[in-house]
Amino acid sequence: MARNTPVTDGDNGHLISARLRAPQAAAIAGIIFSGLLICSLWLLRLSVPANPLEAGEWLESGAGRVAFAVNLVPFAGIAFLWFIGVLRDRLGKLEDQFISTVFLGSGLLFLGMMFVAAAAAGGLILAYSAQPKALFDSGTFVFVRAFTFGAMQIYAFRMAAVFMITTSTLAIRTHFIARWIAFLGYASAVFLLLGSAYVDWAVFVFPIWVLLVSGYILMDNLTG
Question: Using CA atoms in the order 71, 76, 81, 85, what is the torsion angle rounded to 10 degrees?
């Protein structure tokens, strides 16, 4: 029969050190995610008209910027996954299983929809570079453009709003961030739920809020 390996003081030291590094890692990952997503969204806003039924003139002048913005999304996604994982590690035994299931699920759905929207936009650019006339004649452009708008503006960022609500709820219960940031998260989430399909700049609310949470965690870790 296998013997239980005793935990030494050295092992405890490594575990404690890992726990202490977790908040800082979450903060850094959140800051990277926020910076990349804000940059990607800003490039898209500069290059692509807000109207999903526009004629597609941006493909000739802004395709390069859009391609760069789309290529930032996977790296932002990796940082966001790291942010979620380290946040859960910080919560530890205080984590509520019901709320945490919605927290994790909404975060993953947000990433999934963002990746789908980015892939569709990237495919649109490739199709235009290969056969520009055929793209518009077939009606494919109208479908993909509307699909991309719906996947990102409506579905992805409404899942982001659910993520903000559950994170804020966990924050209030466990006090891992300040209560005022949690209440700001509730207000921002309601705005995102109701306005993401109608207000173009509403999508910036989510990465800015994550940046605020990450900055608070980083400062709390450095001064605590």
Answer: 150
